[in-house]
């Protein structure tokens, strides 16, 4: 996945550091709550950094980052002096508001004015002692009025209740409209958001009807654990999405492999059909034409016989080229396997050929390619090498079939000089194979590697 940019690492470290600093005064008294708070901030920032890698999720990434920041700042009220209580009091609740922005932004902006205005009104109509802060705490008291404070508090928590309710409804509607596969991939995140909603359903009404009371530790812990579940659910959903994509890729590869085998089967069937048509049609006509020319030759004068002899030679050459073409499509001798086919090929040559070929079967395309390699190599040996003997060795090397043809000739081999070897190399490259040709004082050596699949 690569490394996060420096600025993302710095942002995640800064927000996590704020959470650690804010919970420092209560680490000994409430270690589990403190740990959950810090982990929630770190998890939210990690989720923001992960989402930022996808251009389509940049907006959501920013929201996750802001929620993590607001949550971390909310814990600064544990320091009962300086600007920290005020920052926590005003900015801390924004994490709920920012979370709602991801669902319906227009509505969240309207509720933001309500929520923040009520929160500021609460701060302006109270003093720091109401919340147990020290006299050194910065607090913008305009008028300490308990009745007015209670009205602002009721407005604030009513807004929070509306925000939570609307958020849950919109999330439920969005999940209901999501396609089944996407719903499955988002199930962990949806479940975690549902848990957060249940916690909010218990926490917000309690605050609404018990204004001024201290939040019980169990609800504080539930808030931290609930928010910690959001990045956990996000990462679990991302993992499900990745697994789904991998499954699609695997299925596609299987389908491609099956299609490739089917194409190979169709090609082999078509090759054999062409071979049979050529053998039963054009080849037989050429043979019959050769016999007629031989019969006609006996009744002609010397000049006519000379012309007929030339015609017979042309027909014989055409017949040989046709047979080569038929064999180039698919050697009929391979019906019994590579070893019998190479044995027949070697026996037809005036040059002794030593064969070291296992009596095994491979895919038709592999056997045909190996046969053409040996045939071309031995043809080159007969024409150019001046050899007295040749050796053919076939063996399996990993996932490839290695074919080696060597002779004791003059070793003068240039793969670029002959059309046969050049065509053979192109044939091997087309099937993903490779051809190596070399020569020396002890003769020439040709090695072909043919993929087995």
From TrEMBL:
The keyword Lyase does not apply. InterPro entries: HATPase_C_sf (IPR036890), HATPase_dom (IPR003594), Sensor_HK_TwoCompSys (IPR050482), Sig_transdc_His_kin_sub3_dim/P (IPR011712). Keywords: ATP-binding, Kinase, Membrane, Nucleotide-binding, Phosphoprotein, Transferase, Transmembrane, Transmembrane helix, Two-component regulatory system. It comes from the Bacteria. It is an enzyme of class 2 (transferase). GO terms for cellular component: membrane. The chain crosses the membrane at residues 32-52, 59-76, 82-100, 107-125, 154-172, 184-206, 218-236. Its EC number is 2.7.13.3. Residues 373-418 form the Histidine kinase/HSP90-like ATPase domain. It catalyses: ATP + protein L-histidine = ADP + protein N-phospho-L-histidine. Residues 270-334 form the Signal transduction histidine kinase subgroup 3 dimerisation and phosphoacceptor domain. SUPFAM superfamilies: ATPase domain of HSP90 chaperone/DNA topoisomerase II/histidine kinase. One of its GO terms (molecular function) is phosphorelay sensor kinase activity. This is histidine kinase. It comes from Asanoa ishikariensis.
